[in-house]
Design goal:
By secondary structure, the protein is α/β, with parallel strands linked by helices. The chain is built from eleven helices and 14 strands. The strands form four sheets. Strands 5-4-3-10-9-8-7-6 form an eight-stranded parallel beta sheet. Strands 1-2 form a two-stranded antiparallel ribbon. It has a two-stranded antiparallel sheet with strand order 11-12.
């Protein structure tokens, strides 16, 4: 990898990167269902699940689109969760009131989580700066919004950049703009911008390629069902995992269909850490915890009483457990040789017992 070897960095008191616990993000999105009390409950549930961070989306319907219902402003894809809604109505439904941000962030901080936002325009950046968020995220749909990326990067704060739909050239352009404008710490999030997305479209093997190509940390913003894809991402070097989060999917919400419930999120946190710890390094031989198990290997033992000058045969020499005798590979070497002294059954074979002549 070119550039700096250590790409780790800190957000508050939490370090992100290789050798550190996976930075898990619970995305609230519009799953509060326009209830402030529910938003606070989601915040509490995320903290109990053990995630590192809670993310909000910071926009209004008017900053994203127009209140127009001509065909191009309608969602018509039959596979789309929000089929036949207008863009404006969808964003109005999923919108998180800006006056909620500060109390949610204060509660998250009190519960030990980092809380930040995904701004979708310049006014949202200015708003989040007043709240002194420690990190920003660029949504997949905004990766070509270079003026927004430049503005966020100029704050000097770390940045997560979701890469759903983006070409290699578009990612390179976004990363280049961010670095030039002053952002030193970037995490690219491999993402499939379909809701929900399919595991077969995740292309997790892009993660190590992306890390090497752009010389930055890489994570996953995951819209698949379950946690399997997220675990695969960690196995391939992802240091950040973002999943949408809700209290109960059957209670509805714009993103509830592909969101994790509290127990699932807790499992994700636990299992991603297990996967991370399992990666280790290229290693051969017994680990520290395997040392005692070595005695359960086979080795060569005298299995019948022998007198001096008796010949080793298959009747008095066997390959058995434990491992205190000569290695099994010497069995054929010993067969036909003579023993130097009287030996009792159960004695591990060793070279001192073997007559060389």
């Amino acid at each position: 990898m070119i550039g700096k070897n250590n790409l780790n960095f800190k957000i508050g008191n939490k370090e992100i990167g290789q050798g550190k616990p996976v930075f898990t993000i619970a995305e609230m999105s519009g799953n509060h269902n326009q209830s402030f009390e529910r938003a606070l409950e989601i915040t509490e549930a995320a903290a109990k699940a053990g995630v590192q961070a809670l993310k909000l989306q910071t926009y209004t319907a008017d900053t994203l689109t127009l209140n127009v219902k001509t065909e191009e402003f309608m969602l018509r894809d039959k596979k789309n969760l929000w089929k036949d809604q207008s863009l404006y109505d969808l964003y109005k439904l999923a919108y998180t009131p800006w006056e909620w941000h500060e109390p949610i962030m204060k509660k998250a901080k009190k519960l030990g989580m980092i809380c930040f936002g995904t701004p979708f325009d310049e006014t949202a950046v200015k708003f989040l700066e007043k709240l002194d968020v420690p990190v920003y995220k660029i949504a997949s749909f905004e990766i070509n919004h270079l003026s927004l990326i430049r503005m966020i990067a100029s704050t000097g704060k770390p940045m997560f950049i979701s890469t759903g739909m983006a070409t290699r050239e578009e990612i390179g352009e976004a990363v280049g703009i961010a670095r030039t404008a002053g952002c030193k710490d970037i995490v690219l999030l491999k993402c499939t911008s379909a809701y929900p997305s399919k595991a077969k479209d995740a292309n997790i093997l892009t993660i190590p390629d992306m890390r090497q190509l752009f010389n930055c940390q890489v994570g996953l913003s995951d819209h698949t069902l379950g946690i399997g894809v997220a675990l695969a991402a960690v196995a391939h070097g992802a240091t950040v995992i973002e999943k949408h989060f809700t209290l109960k999917r059957n209670e509805g919400g714009p993103d509830s269909a592909f969101s994790l419930e509290p127990e699932e999120m807790k499992t994700l946190v636990v299992e991603t850490e297990r996967v991370r710890q399992s990666l280790g390094r290229p290693y051969y031989g017994a680990t520290k915890n395997e040392k005692l198990s070595l005695q359960e290997r086979r080795s060569l033992y005298i299995v019948a009483d022998m007198k001096i000058n008796d010949v080793f045969t298959k009747e008095n020499l066997r390959c058995i457990r434990p491992s205190y005798g000569l290695a099994p590979k010497y069995y054929d070497t010993l067969i036909g040789k003579r023993v130097k002294q009287n030996v009792k059954k159960g004695t591990p074979a060793n070279w001192k017992l073997v007559n060389k002549y």
